[in-house]
Design goal:
The chain is α/β, with parallel strands linked by helices. It contains 22 helices and eleven strands.
Length: 535
């Protein structure tokens, strides 16, 4: 049993993929800065690990995790069970930490507590997973459910529960301790020891009781005088000293039981349940990831299991795509869009449109979907075909960081240069209002050079911008890069309908004047409206 569970993982299909991941193989360039810019950390943040530790490029790992998330979405009791397990495992870890700090591994009471916690963890898992184990589809959860059930139903485990019950009862039935104290010739204590451990408490033995009972010579549970350290006038140190003496004596009494008990714990129970402690970060990742997916589903929003192209073709094609972070914040119906980044359409798009027209929202939606795919999660769309990226690179508006020496434009250009040092054809690049720190002429020139460079790289990219002049240059950029094997660039427009932002994204050529005309009409600033007001 222990050899089967020793390297068990809920998020990796086998030891090889787990080892490769932690060796740095098959891990994409997706860091916490990018996740923060996309907004994912607002809705999916971990306490016991860092979210960027879970990204993968391995399609086997992605499929494995999607199977797990599928089961967890179908059976809410899995999350309930794992949430019950977390505090139990936390207590075990805290108990071990205390033992390590104090160096005390011979405490009878702590040993019993530890084994009780381990048995509780097995019982909790078995109670939650056993009723649904036949219905589970994911290899990881089926393996866990069946092996925990096998362990919980074994004769050895049942005997262990009986043994634990007997041992705990022996301790919990202790109500008093009879001590013997030897005195020297001057009636001073010369030595002391435990004479017996009793299932009955001592009675106070006050004066009235003695008078009423008259004869209590045979009553071994009536106290005729209190022991000094427990008087009200005694210091805390005196009380602690006596308590430590009693605990030490009790441990001495049960030392033999403790030794055999520890042997049982080490040889069987710990070997078969220690793996649960290693699963703590994975459990938190799965539970919180499922909570995010469930929150989206509860709002009636679509989630899909994306298709990953088998032929290695680079694509990001989604129908009904939406931004999950925005969707969780708003009460109104979310607008969805279709995006097609592939060789049959275009790999790079320049998205223009009005301010607050949904450009940043859809830009982040693409990045969030790519990130969720590579965490092994379902993505926020009706359907999607998405290839695995070796990195997600963002260039979003920032504050004044690092601008004292370079200036704002210099800082933006430096960040863009850093992207080119890391990007490849398999990367996803998201640029949102890049080069907004300078005039439109300079910005359009630099942006055209950047787009030409990304075209040569061949990566998927969305460039969201206010530079309508840039969109007009797309044909010239394509003509420049096509002879060198550059991928196609096209334009998208965040629409306005009847003077209102629709947040719909259309694949068409932009008309900057139409945006301005609609906005001018909306606020009564067209020439006709102004003249009308003047009249």
């Amino acid at each position: 049993m222990s050899t089967q569970l020793e390297k068990f993982s809920l998020i990796f299909p086998d030891e090889e993929t787990q080892r490769d991941h932690y060796n740095g193989d098959n891990t994409p360039n997706i860091d916490m800065f990018v996740l923060d810019e996309l907004g994912l950390l607002e809705v999916f943040d971990l306490k016991n690990s860092s979210l960027d530790e879970y990204f993968t490029k391995d399609r086997r790992v992605i499929k494995h995790r999607m199977d797990v998330f599928g089961d967890m979405l179908e059976f809410p009791e899995i999350s309930v069970t794992l949430n019950k397990l977390i505090p139990i495992l936390t207590d075990i870890m805290e108990l071990r930490r205390l033992e390590a700090d104090t160096g005390d591994t011979e405490s009878y009471l702590e040993s019993i507590t530890e084994i009780e916690l381990y048995i509780s963890s097995i019982s909790t898992l078995n109670a939650g997973l056993s009723p649904i184990k036949e219905q589970l589809k994911s290899e990881a959860l089926r393996t866990l459910a069946f092996r925990i059930s096998e362990l919980a139903e074994s004769d050895y485990y049942k005997e262990l529960n009986i043994k634990l019950s007997e041992l705990t009862n022996r301790v919990r039935d202790i109500k008093s301790v009879t001590i013997g104290v030897n005195l020297d010739a001057q009636l001073r204590p010369s030595s002391a020891g435990v004479l017996s451990i009793n299932p009955e408490p001592f009675r106070s033995g006050d004066v009235i009781e003695k008078i009423l009972r008259l004869n209590f010579k045979d009553d071994e549970y009536t106290c005729i005088a209190n022991l000094v350290p427990f008087n009200k006038k005694q210091s805390e140190n005196q009380r602690t000293a006596l308590a430590l003496a009693f605990n030490s004596a009790i441990n001495d009494v049960y030392k033999q039981s403790l030794r055999s008990w520890k042997k049982i714990v080490q040889s069987y129970v710990l070997e078969n349940t220690d793996f649960l402690l290693d699963l703590m970060p994975e459990i938190e990742f799965l539970v919180k990831g499922t909570a995010l997916l469930r929150a989206l589903s509860a709002k009636g929003l679509s989630l899909c299991r994306p298709t990953i192209p088998e032929d290695g073709a680079r694509s990001f094609a989604a129908k009904g795509l939406y931004n999950p972070c925005v969707a969780l914040k708003v009460d109104y119906e979310i607008v969805t869009n279709d995006i097609d980044m592939d060789k049959d359409n275009a790999m790079i798009y320049v998205l223009t449109g009005p301010n607050r027209g949904g450009k940043s929202v859809i830009t982040c939606a693409i990045g969030l979907s790519q990130a969720m795919l590579q965490l092994g999660m379902f993505v926020p769309a009706d359907s999607a075909t998405v290839s695995i990226a070796d990195g997600i690179f963002t260039h979003f508006p920032t504050g004044a960081d690092d601008t004292i020496d370079k200036g704002r434009l210099g800082e933006e250009c430096a960040r863009l240069r850093d992207i080119f040092e890391a990007v490849s054809a398999d990367s996803l690049v998201l640029l949102d209002e890049s080069l907004s720190s300078t005039g439109s002429f300079e910005a359009s020139y630099i942006a055209a050079e950047v787009l030409a460079g990304l075209s040569r790289v061949g990566c998927r990219c969305l460039f969201s911008t206010h530079l309508h002049e840039l969109a007009a240059e797309i044909d010239n950029i394509n003509a420049r890069t096509a002879p060198d094997g550059g991928v196609a660039i096209d334009t998208l427009v965040a629409g306005i309908e009847s003077g209102k932002r629709s947040f719909k994204i259309y694949r068409q050529k932009p008309d900057g004047k139409s945006y301005a005309r609609d906005i001018a009409d909306k606020y009564g600033l067209s020439y006709e409206n102004i003249v009308s007001r003047l009249r």
